[in-house]
Amino acid sequence: MYEQIASLMNDLMLQTGLTELWWGNIVMIVVGGILLYLAIAKKYEPFLLVGIGLACIIANVPGSDLIKPGGLFHYAYQGVELLIIPPLIFLGIGAMTDFGPMIANPSLVILGAAAHLGIFVALIGAKLLGFTLAESSAIGIIGGADGPMAIYVTMKLAPHLLPQISVAAYSYMALMPLIQPPIMKLLTTKAERNIIMEQPRYVSRLEKIVFPIVISIIVNLFLPPVAPLITMLMLGNLLKECLLVDRLAETAANTLLNIVTLILTVAIGSTMNADLFLNFKTLLIIILGLVAFVFGTASGVIGAKIMNKLSGGKINPLIGSAGIASVPIAARVSHVVGLQENRYNFLIMHAMGPNLAGVFGTAISGGIILALIGV
Amino acid sequence: MKIPDSIEGAALLSIIDFFLSFIFIAGIGVILYLFPLLNKLGEVKEDEF
Fold first, then answer.
1. Is the confidence at residue A230, as pLDDT, over 80?
2. Which residue of A has its CA nearest to B22?
3. Cβ-nearest to A206 among B3, B10, B38
4. What is the pLDDT of residue A192?
């Protein structure tokens, strides 16, 4: 009788995940817990980190069927793997973005390229550390601070690194308010941070309608490898700006974007299984991602300082760091750091120009990399 | 020509990409400078929507 009970209990235990649990799972469950803590207690990008954090925990509970074929998280990942989710995210972002600040001040667009030095520092750094050129390029694109673009380029060049790269990209984007301000303050003087910029010009409806059409043509003509993403961004923006299809624009910007964000976050979190994630390469990628963000922020600020000198002191160098992309987090950081210096200095609209240009800067860099590596 | 999978290749890729990024972005900037000219073509009256 006792033997039967013991045997049945043993069978029951084998049905659970307890026997497959190892210390790596415990570490990753703690990591998931930290992500949830940052999202819920510290309010760092809860839209992203709540889903990533919980899915990370579930992915490390061995008994869970959610991440196996047949499980919902597994199918969420298929959406990422098949590159369906990133263009849909860009569609939603386009439908909620006003490109007016970028159109209003074309000279600041150059900061969208200046703030991407981090991509190349990380790329060369990764190569020095023994990654292949394709892997190094995918790691470098973390410095573009653009989640969907990082996923897109990684899936084309080094799909096996998707968990590490997407987690690094989204985590550092969420942590921008911690990473950027010390670098911005270190590289600028008090007088520079106090510069109050001129009000941008009014941008007409016609300009806003023509913008997505022109950009779609340019990107499809010159950068076909990344055209699917930027074209969807521009389609979303055209839906918004033409003012004729409010329901479509609103659906893309709200309902659709919320759904695909939900799918994306659980897909990324579900790839953070200890078996795949806990290795030395992950540590290197996380460090290289931080290096990329630091150099990108620094080069953007230095670029804006140069432009400030050339313009006779009219440009606040704090807006340079927004050129790294990560819309609108980086622009908000520029604004907040400016406000800390002078509570009447509202930099948000000025920072949005380079911030939006940064999206194109990342797309251009990603497109050139994909074209040159021959994917 | 394929870029070699070496440090030199990474440096070459980075230099070309960084340089071309500035060219492309500057090109977009130049086009945006021309955008105010669109307003001479006409006006889209928002209150008609």
1. yes
2. A113
3. B38
4. 95
Alpha-carbon distance of A35 to A49, in angstroms, equals 6
**Intra-chain end-to-end CA distance of chain A, in Å:** 65
Q: Do B28 and A109 touch (CB under 8 A)?
A: yes
Residues A349-358: tens digit of each pLDDT: 999 999 999 9
Amino acid identity of residue A296, one-letter, is G
pLDDT in tens, A106-127: 999 999 999 999 999 999 999 9
The full length of chain A comes to 375
User: Which of chain A's residues have a Cβ under 8 Å away from the Cβ of B41?
Assistant: 206
- Tell me the C-alpha to C-alpha distance, in Å, between residue B44 and each of A216, A238, A263, B38: 21, 14, 38, 11
Local structure of residue A188 (DSSP, 8 states): S
Closest partner CB to B10 (pick from A123, A214, A222)? A123
Which residues, numbered 9 to 48 in chain B, qualify as contacts with chain A under a Cβ-Cβ cut-off of 8 Å?
A: 9-11, 13-18, 20-22, 24-33, 35-36, 38-39, 41-44, 46
Decide if pLDDT at B48 tops 90.
no
User: Is residue A116 within 8 Å of residue A358, measured between CB atoms?
Assistant: yes
What pLDDT is attached to residue B46? 66
Which residues in chain A have their CB less than 8 angstroms from residue B25's CB? 109-110, 112-113, 357, 360-361, 364
What A42-45 contacts at long range (C-beta under 8 Å, 24+ apart), as own/partner pairs, is A44/A174, A44/A175, A44/A177, A45/A170, A45/A173, A45/A174, A45/A329
| Model pLDDT for residues A307-338, shown as the tens digit of each residue | 999 999 999 999 999 999 988 999 999 999 99
Regarding an ipTM greater than 0.85, the answer is yes
The Cα angle at residue A285 between residues A35 and A44, in degrees rounded to 5: 25
Q: What is each CA distance from A303 to A117, A139, A336, in whole angstroms? A: 10, 23, 20
Q: How many CB pairs under 8 A join A and B?
A: 120
Amino acid (one-letter) located at A373: I
Task: Judge: B25–A360 Cβ closer than 8 Å, yes or no.
Answer: yes
Q: What is the pTM of this model?
A: 0.90
The larger pLDDT score, comparing residue A210 to residue A43, is at A210
